[in-house]
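ARCHIVE CARD
CATEGORY: sequence design from structure
SOURCE FIELD: tokenized fold
FIELD CONTENT:
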């Protein structure tokens, strides 16, 4: 009996440890057309708040409830209950145990309620440390190159992470190239220098623009004065 009780208590302890006490998110409307909205309402099941949809930077950090089974809805106007959410509103489910994430938006002209399509990207701050770069290859090309002293290799539609530089350098040399098929030639994407801030995480997106052959790279710092606890 004591053994059974111990197992039940242990299970409850593990479950509580895996459940976040709060969630945070930041939003980015990558490559948005000029006609797209710059703000919208985000409903978390209890609260509807107006949020920013920036193109060239992350939004402010929004705190969300840690409710399990949480679904977020984007609505053109403020709502008070789930029943008021217009049918067809863009939505995204928050996976269990996810505490910090990004909402990456793309255009969806077929949605008459709000012309956006949200994608949730888990920030995994327990793994993604300050000074590192989190990479998202949103293209169908293979991308590889050099990031400071580190090598980077990304398969199509994948993500990767480069660790902080070994030295206390203030700038990172970035040299990236891409290839569409295995036997295709390798073409350059960029050869440049990025400022490095050891206090901030950097998130980089590799994406395809219309009427442009080579992929484009945009990177954004995610500096938060109050950092999550890290090992």
């Amino acid at each position: 009996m004591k053994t059974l009780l111990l197992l039940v208590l242990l299970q409850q302890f593990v479950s509580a440890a895996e459940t976040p006490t709060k969630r945070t998110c930041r939003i980015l409307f990558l490559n948005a057309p000029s006609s797209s909205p710059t703000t919208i309402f985000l409903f978390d099941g209890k609260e509807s708040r107006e949020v920013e949809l920036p193109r060239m930077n992350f939004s402010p950090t929004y705190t969300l409830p840690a409710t399990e089974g949480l679904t977020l809805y984007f609505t053109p106007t403020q709502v008070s209950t789930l029943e008021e959410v217009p049918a067809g509103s863009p939505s995204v489910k928050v996976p269990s145990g996810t505490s910090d994430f990004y909402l990456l938006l793309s255009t969806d002209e077929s949605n008459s309620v709000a012309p956006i399509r949200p994608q949730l990207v888990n920030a995994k701050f327990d793994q993604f440390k300050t000074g590192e770069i989190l990479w998202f290859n949103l293209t169908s090309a293979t991308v590889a190159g050099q990031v400071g002293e580190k090598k980077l290799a990304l398969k199509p539609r994948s993500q990767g992470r480069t660790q902080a530089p070994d030295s206390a350098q203030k700038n990172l040399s970035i040299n990236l190239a891409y290839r569409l098929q295995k036997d295709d030639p390798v073409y350059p994407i960029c050869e440049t220098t990025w400022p490095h801030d050891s206090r901030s995480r950097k998130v980089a997106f590799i994406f395809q623009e219309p009427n442009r052959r080579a992929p484009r790279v945009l990177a954004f710092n995610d500096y938060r004065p109050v950092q999550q606890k890290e090992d």
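CARD ANNOTATION: The first strand starts at residue 23 and ends at 29. The radius of gyration is 20 Å.
SHELF: design records, drawer C
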